[in-house]
Design brief:
- The chain is of the alpha/beta class.
- 45% of the residues lie in helices and 16% in strands.
- Strands 1, 2, 3, 4, 5, 6, 7, 8, 9 and 10 form a 10-stranded mixed beta sheet that branches.
Length: 346
């Protein structure tokens, strides 16, 4: 990032880069190298080792010996993933103006920090900066009109909740913590920063919270890479299918803030219809008891208790669909349906 021509005393702001790591030695070196290769140079890099049992700590310490901008924090006690995210953010410098979380298995492309800081510095109303993301082999986080770069935070959140951008169909621009640059003062003002009720959409919840009062900056460049693999968070929690439930939690928490009263009721109705369709299909998939217990309890917490009638109606539709499509073992399918309805109702 070049100094401003009209201010010779301008100094690029300090950026705190943070990597929480647990047993991430397979990709950690690649992640660290991507920070060292940034064209932007005024950064500090804090690597927080969460009691890793592999070589993560040694890798981090070896890099810290070579570059004074890197420091390693070694947790004394193991923390859950989101707890460690919050603990990691407490380590950033009081002087940093922006913060960039980078997961240990992700990486930044060389111009990432430079371009994100430049946009944020040009537009002080911006609280969060995002960009396109290369996730595996796919480009994600699209849906915003080009060449727009500054968007009302309230507009972004409304479009996200109704899953419709101003120029196309769905909208998903928040990505993951790796894909976002956040003003450090916003991080310091919220403790804990990440809401520990969430797991899979914890980064989205932060965006909905912060964008009530700030704008969203977006760069039409691919600036980050997110890796997909079997040990990722998404894979590890998939047996409970937390994602569909957590998206519903976001809608209930922030829908009344960003949507009109009638619009919120309509979106909630549509979301609940999809939710019961999902649960109805799950009846035929021999889900374990902890799956049903999780969804029953969380729906109750949202003041949306599980309806046996809606579930039974959805199951009947799914049963008929399977009869028409498969028609292999209708009697067995019929018995399975009612066995699981009884199980869910317990």
């Amino acid at each position: 990032m070049k100094p401003r021509e009209n201010n010779l005393s301008y100094s690029p702001p300090l950026v705190s880069v943070v990597t929480p790591v647990y047993n991430g030695d397979k990709y950690l070196s690649e992640c660290i190298e991507s920070i060292l290769n940034q064209t932007y140079e005024n950064w500090e890099y804090i690597i927080v080792n969460n009691c890793s049992k592999d070589g993560s700590l040694k890798i981090a310490q070896d890099y810290a010996k070579k570059d004074s901008r890197i420091r390693v924090h070694d947790n004394k006690d193991f923390l859950s993933m989101v707890e460690n995210f919050n603990h990691s953010l407490l380590q950033i410098s009081d002087e940093s103006k922006y913060c960039k979380v980078v997961h240990a298995d992700d990486l930044l492309f060389p111009d990432c920090i430079s371009k994100m800081v430049a946009l944020a510095e040009t537009n002080p109303s911006i609280g969060i900066v995002g960009s396109y993301v290369l996730e595996g082999v796919r480009i994600k986080c699209d849906g915003l009109p080009y060449p727009g770069s500054v968007f009302s935070g309230r507009d972004i959140c409304r479009w996200s909740l109704i899953d419709r951008s101003p120029v196309s169909g769905g909208l998903y621009v928040f990505g993951s913590p790796t894909s976002l640059l956040i003003r450090s003062d916003l991080i310091r003002d919220r403790d804990p920063f990440y809401n520990e009720r969430y797991l899979q959409v914890v980064d989205q919840e932060v965006c909905y919270y912060l964008l009530q009062k700030t704008d969203f900056g977006f760069l039409h460049d691919v600036l980050t890479f997110s890796r997909l693999h079997t040990s990722s968070t998404t894979s590890s929690v998939s047996p409970l299918n937390r994602l569909i439930l957590e998206k519903l939690m976001l809608l209930v928490e922030f829908g009344p803030t960003y949507l009109g009263k009638d619009e919120y009721k309509q979106v909630l109705s549509q979301r609940m219809e999809k939710y019961y369709k999902f649960l109805s299909k799950s009846l035929f998939e021999n889900k374990p008891e902890n799956f049903w217990k999780f969804h029953r309890e969380e729906l109750k917490n949202l003041d949306l208790p599980l309806s046996r009638t809606k579930l039974a109606n959805g199951a009947l539709k799914e049963f008929v669909r399977r009869l028409l499509v498969l028609s292999a073992h209708p009697v067995r399918t019929f018995k399975t349906m009612f066995r699981f309805i009884k199980k869910v109702d317990n």
